[in-house]
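Students often ask why we bother predicting the structure of a whole assembly rather than each chain alone. The short answer is interfaces. A chain on its own may look different once its partners are present, and contacts between molecules only exist in the joint model. In this exercise we take two input lines together and write out one structure for the complete complex. Read the inputs first and try to guess which parts will touch.
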Amino acid sequence: MEIDWFPLWLSLRVALVSTGIALAAGLWLAYILANRDFRGKEALDAAVTLPLVLPPTVIGWYLLVVIGRASPIGKLWEEVFGAPLVFTWKAAVIAALLHSLPLLVKSARAAFESVDRSYERAARTLGASEWRLFWRVTLPLAHRSIFAATALAFARSLGEFGATLMVAGNIPGRTQTVAVAIYDAVEGGNGALARALVLIISAVALIILTFANRWSTR
Amino acid sequence: MIRARLRKTFPTRPDSTGFSLDLEFTTAAGITVLFGPSGAGKTLVLDSIAGFVRPDQGRILLDDEILFDGATGVHLPPQARNCGYVFQNYALFPHMTLRQNLEFAVERKPRLERHRRVNEMIERFRLADPAGRRPHEVSGGQRQRCSIARALIGGPKLLLLDEPAQGLDAPLRAEFYEVLRQVRADFGTPMLLVTHDLTECFELGEELLILRDGKIAQSGTPRKILDQPANVEVARLLGVFNLMEGELRALDPGRNTSRLHVGEFDLDGPYFPGRLKGDRVTICVRPDQLRVSARNGRPGPNQIPAELKRTVEKPQGMRLEFAGAGGNPIHVDLAHSDYERQRNNQDWVIQFPAESLRVV
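Now the answer. The structure tokens for the assembled complex follow.
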């Protein structure tokens, strides 16, 4: 059987990029949530967590409203880059990001909050700026949970289906990720392809989760 | 020199009772000890000076620098305050070696300067051997010395210590006091130390601030406070006194005498300035200033018969616990040899030397 490897590479690429963005944005958000007191803090946390509990189709619909060709963001994107954002792999990245970000923010916030305050206080009395304190003290002390959370976020991005289908579509060779390709294969009666893709994606996810577990418990 | 005037209120909430800190002190002593029971606000004072906590009102001056001023809104961040802090758990960064912990504190200094300072501290605090190991791999004493070295390496103007000897066993404690005295001699950095251990106050304190319920109950040298507690609360907090209710029956400034009535007995004491005849007072006597003897007939002057309830073996001697006049517990500390001579007494009298009597 001839397997088209494109969906797998695309899924990996989407997951990698979205995890990278989730890591940068998630660590920042988590740090703010763990260390600052401001109005609407818990509301922000809830908003970030929302995609975890909403049906993916709801996220997809929201995304179409926000980044669709008729929306201000969609128009701006088209103006700057000369092509629409929806129904490209970049839209798949955004869909995956919305699902991986809450995982990261939740775990990283808990990890930051579990770092003993006296270490951060000590660093401050030793003249460390907040920036240096974060990179040299807080992050290294929380790195294990954050590694694990990153792996989890990556695995989740890899498996994103519903919202991806809605905003990136199912264009073979362009936006068809593994999850979408499996759906497509089953619908098209191609059981052998579906089985192969299912086995591959299961194996990849299992490996990632095993490592995540090992990191977080070591 | 530290001058601090602090006010901070925590309102009563469903999950916590309210607390308010309201105090003012100035100290220029080498080692100032903040003493008080838990919940008195000692750590809050330290944290306000370090800049972890922002007081509601007041002003904190370290030498000539304003660290905090409620009126003008000055509130320097901890980084800009130049105060070393030794934490109760030492707070050595667990992911760094002892050497890296020291280096962290001087990272922004030029390379050569950095090396010089780190090496100097390692040598002075005898850390050469464990320098390459992480905090959990070294002994308690080494951790402790490293935390002091780290707090000092940047050349702070003040060293704050939060119950640093808490939970240490006796030899480590003694070593720790020695290190602090050495630091005081070598660096001349003034220190403000929080403790609820009275021995520590006397071991280290040149100036003692007694804190109770967010206020300063008394300040002065430890000796002076022990000689004359300002009030019953302070006497109770120090926890070393026999306290008895009594009445002043006579006062004679000319002959420097007074007469105190306790239960059904009279005691002759020194003149107490500022008191009036007829005042109800609390008499305050240290257990080590009392004497005991066997009772022979009527008690003599300044003697009160008492019933021995219990003896407690202590490292320094014997503590005898009596029930005195009116059932008041009276404790007497005796040397072992004294006790051996008297242990077969049937009935006891306690002798109150006139100079041992104080009233609060």
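Check your guess against this: The mean pLDDT of chain B is 91.
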